[in-house]
Fold:
Amino acid sequence: MLLCMQNSYHITLKLQKFCKYSFKLSTLNSVFHMPQSFMKCIYIHTCLPAAKKTEDRKIQTLLRDRVPLHKLMQIMDASLLLPPPTVRGMTELDREAFQKKVMIPYVIVKSSRVQCAVKCLKKYMLKLENIKPVQCEVDLEKKVLLLNPLLVSKYEDIKDEFLLAYGSDDAVFEYKEITLQYENWKAMEILKAVLPENQEGAHSYSIIGHILHVNLRDHMVPYKSLIGQVYLDKIRNISLVINKAKNIESTYRNFQMEVLAGTGDTNVMVREAGCTFTMDFAKVYWNPRLSTEHERIVKKLKHGDVLYDVMAGIGPFAIPAGKKKCYVLANDLNPSSYEALVQNCSINKVKERVQCFNLDGHEFIKTVLKKDLLEKWKDPSFCGKVHVTMNLPAMAVEFLPSFIGLYHNTDHLPHNPTLPLVHVYMFTKEENEDIAVGMVAEQLGYLDSKELDLITEDSIVSSAEDAPNNTEVKVHYQEDEPPQKDVSTQEVIKNENKGKSEFGGLQKHVNEVSFVRQVAPNKAMMRVSLQLPWDLLVRDPDQCEEPPCKKVKAP
Structure:
């Protein structure tokens, strides 16, 4: 390796530090001047483990080009400890095909000093599945420490550091051949070696009780049997591997599944937020990746609050809320979800605080929620907040019109009631707050479909990397700053006016817009939390078809 620096007195002093790492050949000067330049150069030995021994961190980072030690395996021939390349494209699992012989360095030390040796060599030791890095020698008074051949090629690589900590020169450094097998690699390493390169694989999965659930893309289907068997072999405490056969399109939000490996039923028990949930996973909807979102909503609830869970499922919102001594009315249309919800309320001892219903969402809002909320408003002792959760992202926004005119022509309404805070979920093509709020505004009558289309188009354009052709854009590149766009004054005014009248006046009622998770490359799950306006609850739903914010111009 050749290291070049601008020729100066200070650089000459720095080069002197590198001389101990340079080539020592009689026919070659280690330090020399570059012809016709003001550069001074030094040949650096390419065997860099010696840099680990130096206490000069500046030299260490220069020699390694600022590459951390734990990333050296990516630069070196890391395939040495990976499964053999011959398994690429395997569709039926053949465990014998994964056998591979490698030469492994090791150190023999006294048994009495093994703890000291392990502490010193810990970062260099071999770490593979089902291989103990510390092994017994024939001589019981000695131990064998297996080392990583990617980090240690000869005893000199570790000698100084080892002797300094070990304190004795009686250790023996040798090589031996070992056979790596299928049992020595993790599931991800096996699948990465087998499945097609540079394609999204089957590395993502969810565990629900004893069930491992994958969602395989079409190009992974030929490998589904192998994928299922690998996960069954490698992931602990699972006995069944299933794949989602089709998208969730049923009314009850469950999906068709196929068994890839293993046996057993689909009745499972899981724990979340200190609660226990039982279910038949084949008949209900449950996603452990939503646990963080469940926690976010439950944290908003306080003792004495009311929660109306319109699409409750098996109770991930309702039951933790009941444990916080909130008053909960939970509903789900799926009979299996309703049965599991009732059972989970009993298991978690919240039956007195959680009432369960098996109704359509529209019916639940217009009957149960309407009656109970009116009673809470008339109760002078009620001082909590009112929350409504609608977690059915494929169609929850379509239930929002049930709130329009919910209390129209209702007598004896309170003057200053606690308005419900609705948390409604939806799918959007991208992570965009305007699109999510626009979907809510359309369903509540604040926008029509054409206006929503315009908002969607504007959001897509504004999030694109390239500006519209009719917009004047100047890109400034500044150090430590991303490129910024300067648009015309007319465009700025247009955006400011749009912000003042966003979503037909609904924006002021929006409490929060949150990105929940990326479901697929072009499918994001979003949540809009808004406080229902009083005029929307008491409005005549049949008064006009136009959005309420529209004003008819005089002829």
Observations:
- The chain has 15 helices and 22 strands.
- The CA atoms of residues 105 and 175 lie 4 Å apart.
- The longest helix spans residues 361-378.
- The longest strand covers residues 100-110.
